[in-house]
């Protein structure tokens, strides 16, 4: 908003954010979208939802790996509900969500041991 102090980010403040926005954010995340909260002059004002397009070949590639006895793990920095929605769509076996970039290498080492 022109002339206003505006903010968009993935942080939500349940004390300030309306229940309507919070419940809509849950629905969007369950649909596999990443949600950003928008505030204008410090007041929660809306949501922006984005999603990466899933390649059409991804589901069949994962199914082929399953036929070969290979389990699929997804590790992402995305919100848990968003990641789980994508995993269900694709048939991914296990999800590690909300993993910070600096923690991903350690998580891979942990899984390899």
What are the key terms here?
113 residues, alpha+beta, 2 domains, two-stranded parallel sheet, elongated
Helix content: 25-40%
Taking the alpha carbons of the first and last residues, their distance comes to 51 Å
Radius of gyration based on Cα positions: 17 Å
* Share of residues in strands: 15-25%
Principal-axes geometry comes out as: elongated
How many distinct folded domains? Answer: 2
Structural class per helix/strand content?
alpha+beta
How would you name the oligomeric state of the polypeptide chains in this document? single chain
Q: Main β-sheet, in a few words?
A: 3 strands, antiparallel
Largest sheet strand order: 1-2-3
Low-pLDDT stretches are none
**Number of β-strand runs:** 5
Q: Average pLDDT across residues?
A: 87
Question: Helical region count?
Answer: 4
Task: Describe, in plain words, how this protein is organized in 3D.
With 113 residues, this protein is an alpha+beta fold. It has two domains: 6-50, no CATH class; 58-106, no CATH class. The protein is built from four helices and five strands, in the order βαββαβαβα. The chain has helices at residues 19-30, 58-67, 80-90, 101-112; strands at 6-9, 34-40, 43-50, 73-75, 94-96. The strands form two sheets. It has a three-stranded antiparallel beta sheet with strand order 1-2-3. Helix 3 (80-90) links the parallel strand 4 and strand 5. Helix 1 packs parallel to helix 3 (80-90). It is elongated.
